[in-house]
Amino acid sequence: MALLEKKVAIVTGGGRGLGLAFASALAKAGAAVLICDNGCGSDGRGSDPQIAAEAAEELKHCGLNISACDYDISTIEGVRAVIEKALAEFGHIDILINNAGFLRDRTVLKMTDEDFDAVVEVHLKGAFRLSREVGRIFKEQATGGRIVNITSVAGLVGNFGQSNYGSAKSGVAALTRIMAQEFAKMNVTVNAIAPIAFTRMTENLARFQDRDRDMLAPELVNPLLLFLVSDMAAGVSGKIIGAEGNHYFEYFTERTDGLTPIEGWTPETVSDKWNSIVKNN
Fold first, then answer.
1. Of 223, 230, 162, which Cα lies nearest the Cα of 195?
2. Of residues 71, 165, 239, 279, which has the active-site annotation?
3. Domain boundaries along the sequence of the chain
4. Are 200 and 15 in contact (CB under 8 A)?
5. Closest by Cα among 179, 177, 178, 151 to 166
6. Are 204 and 154 spatial neighbours (Cβ–Cβ below 8 Å)?
7. How does 142-175 read in b/e, with b if 16+ C-beta sit within 10 Å?
8. Taking the CB of residue 58, how many other CB atoms lie within 10 A of it?
9. CATH classification of 8-255 is 2.10.220.10, yes or no?
C-alpha cells in the first residue's frame, strides 16, 4: 500500500519550484493532488493559468492523479473556490500544503505599503484563510488531517531587505503553533517547514550565489514533507523544521534564565546586569 493511498492533498503555489516538487512527491506516494497556482511572476504581478495546467498535465503523463486550478488565494472567494474544486474532483480533503508566495524585496525605508501588504496577503493571510476553511472541512469529515505551512529563515532569524516577507513568514510560524493547539482535538496536525532551496524566488539572492544547486534541490525537502503528512507523524504537531538540502533541524524559541534583582530594576541596573539577561554568543 502506498504511503498516502486514498489521501487528497491541496498544494498552493504547486506549479513551479518547491510546490511542484511537493505535488509530485505527494502524487507519487499515492495521493490525489490539486495544484493551485495562478502563475504570477516572482513579484506576484500578472498571472498565467497555463502554469498550473501544464504542471498537472506533465504529472498526469506519469500516471499520477492530478488536477489543477489557478484561483487567487489572496481573496476569500479564491480560497473557497480552491476547496470546492478539490471536493468536486476528489470528494474529500486530507492534506493542505500552504506554499504559495512571492517576493517584493526592499529595505524598510524604500518599502511601500502596497508591497508590504501584497506579500502578507498571500503568504500569511492566504495560509490563514485556507487553513481555516480546510479546518472546517476537517471538522465535518471527522477523520483528522494534515496541514504543512512553508515558513522561512527570513521570518525566523531575519534577512536584510525582506521586512514584508520576513514578517509574513514569522506570522506563519506563529500561526502554525497556534493552529496546532486549536486543531489537536480534531486529530489534525499542523507543522511548518523552513526550506533553503534553489527556486526562481531564491536564485537571485546574494546568499545563494556560491551554493551548489544540486545540494539545495527542492526535491531534497520531499522526505520531510511526506513524513509530516503521513500516519507516521500522527503525534507530531506545532513543529518548525528547517531543511537545508539533506540537513534537517528544528527551529524553536528559547528564553534565558534571566535575573530578578531583589532591589528591583533601574535603567542603570539593567545596564549593569545586561549580560545576565540576554544570551551571549
1. 223
2. 165
3. 8-255
4. no
5. 151
6. no
7. eeebbbbbbbbbbbbeebebbbbbbbbbbbbbeb
8. 13
9. no
pTM, full prediction: 0.93
Give 129-186 pLDDT, tens digit per residue: 999 999 999 999 999 999 999 999 999 999 999 999 999 999 999 999 999 999 999 9
Q: Where are the beta strands (DSSP E) in 116-179?
A: 145-150
Strands 32-36 and 8-12 come out as parallel
User: Measured in whole angstroms, how far is the alpha carbon of residue 247 from the centre of its chain?
Assistant: 18
Q: Which of 169, 248, 273, 279 is catalytic?
A: 169
Q: At what angle do helices 50-60 and 17-28 cross, to 10 degrees?
A: 30
In 3D, which of 40, 34, 6 has the Cα closest to residue 22? Answer: 34
Active site residue 60: no
Cell reading at 37: 497556482
125 catalytic per annotation: no
Residue 251: CB atoms within 10 Å:
16
